[in-house]
TrEMBL record:
GO biological process terms, semicolon-separated: phosphorelay signal transduction system
Designated name of the protein: Response regulator
PANTHER family: RESPONSE REGULATORY DOMAIN-CONTAINING PROTEIN (PTHR44591:SF3), STRESS RESPONSE REGULATOR PROTEIN 1 (PTHR44591)
Gene3D superfamilies, per database record: 3.40.50.2300
Residue positions where 4-aspartylphosphate is found in the record: D56
Pfam families in the cross-refs: Response_reg
Taxonomic source organism: Sedimenticola thiotaurini
Domain Response regulatory stretches: 7-123
SUPFAM superfamilies: CheY-like (SSF52172)
UniProt entry keywords in alphabetical sequence: Phosphoprotein
Length: 148
């Protein structure tokens, strides 16, 4: 995760939601979109990687659950936070999403302040986790370099 302007990948086949999310987030983030699961997987794997994925479940090819599953099983994309953003609001759908590795779940229709707050929170958490992991790696290197 870079310290530059965070990149958000919006995955939704409904142009209305893609446009709404792009307009909502573009002032703070670089926003890219994908309309299918396969396109999402390709864009999520492209360098530079997105810092967060907003993912619909209902897509025309593979569903968002499968996209999340594949992202979390790929070493290059496994740490990218995924937030499901979908009309599927049943508790079982939410549980399934969390079990696949999503960090959050937002039901449509969306509340713009809620989306912005959750995106901001998960970007910040991901950056803090990365900083901690970098610090631990540095400490390990330093301790292994010390000889007795």
């Amino acid at each position: 995760m870079s310290m530059e302007r965070p990149r958000i990948l919006v995955v939704d086949d409904e142009p209305f939601y893609t446009e709404v999310l792009h307009n909502l987030l573009r002032d703070e983030y670089e926003v890219e979109s994908a309309a299918t699961g396969e396109e999402a997987l390709a864009k999520a794997s492209a360098v530079p990687l997105p810092d967060l994925v907003l993912l619909d479940i209902i897509l025309p090819d593979i569903d968002g659950y499968e996209v999340c599953y594949r992202l979390k099983r790929n070493a290059a994309t496994s740490d990218i936070p995924v937030i499901f953003l979908t009309v599927k609001s049943d508790v079982d759908d939410e549980i399934r999403g969390f079990n696949l590795g999503a960090v959050d779940y937002i039901a449509k229709p969306i509340s713009p302040p809620i989306v912005k707050a959750r995106v901001r929170t998960h970007i910040k958490l991901a950056r803090m986790i990365q900083q901690l992991e970098d610090m631990v790696a540095q400490l390990r290197e330093q301790s292994s370099a010390v000889s007795f």
